[in-house]
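Quarterly update from the structural biology core.
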Amino acid sequence: MSECGGWLPADPQPHGHPDKTTSTPACFVFVILNCLSYSRFSKPAPMFLDDSFRKWTRIREFVPPFGIKGQDSLIKAILSVTKEYRLTPALDSLHCRRCIIVGNGGVLANKSLGSRIDDFDIVVRLNSAPVKGFEKDVGSKTTLRITYPEGAMQRPEQYERDSLFVLAGFKWQDFKWLKYIVYKERVSASDGFWKSVATRVPKEPPEIRILNPYFIQEAAFTLIGLPFNNGLMGRGNIPTLGSVAVTMALHGCDEVAVAGFGYDMSTPNAPLHYYETVRMAAIKESWTHNIQREKEFLRKLVKAHVITDLSSGI
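Predicted structure, tokenized:
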């Protein structure tokens, strides 16, 4: 039994595992439980890419989604226009930062958690999950919306005001797409996307950020224990955006909660998302995710009181 209560990250891969001698100990999630008694979670990397991104060896050596190799010119071009790399000054100045990651799960329906969600300092939403019309269950506040081209809202009127748009780059085309968006250039439909993508995001450049791929890497290999596959995207080794957002919050917030998380595979006909009729069985078709491994990871966090699950779906 270790000092972490028996939970340690998966054994490092023997060949080429990123920073296997310096990766953040899993213990940090067990010793920091709330804002009143403990200092902030450890911060091994900035939340968003900034103009020093080339100095980060851990992400420089890997291609997307686990790094930025080959993307230097695109990222430099994007950051030269956005010029903002942090949260808002008001959020950065908070002594105790309370964050909630709002998942898209059907478990959110009819829970009336809206007011509790809006009470958090930072409300993170994922992909195109709508707010309008669902405020009673999901709240009305959005601080960050994390997505990738195929997951982004396609109608400009759907975007919330006063929120930051955050790209999670899972492939090189995603960075190229964001450059189009930032420079207000025409998005080409032939750029290798697997479905139609947004051609416009109604955000000014200073409202746009790039999520540090460190958190995708940390979630996949250190916390969840997905196959390393030589640092390349492969079958079952890409964490869902929800787990990536939780990992980001563990390093950037003092208190972390989730809502709308949890896939109950024993109910294949239950709604997969709170806003549409797609059924739970659809998630079984995922090639890139390992839902069972992620569920185990999240359950350990809840059991250790590291995160709070408002909708009790994990």
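The first strand starts at residue 98 and ends at 102.
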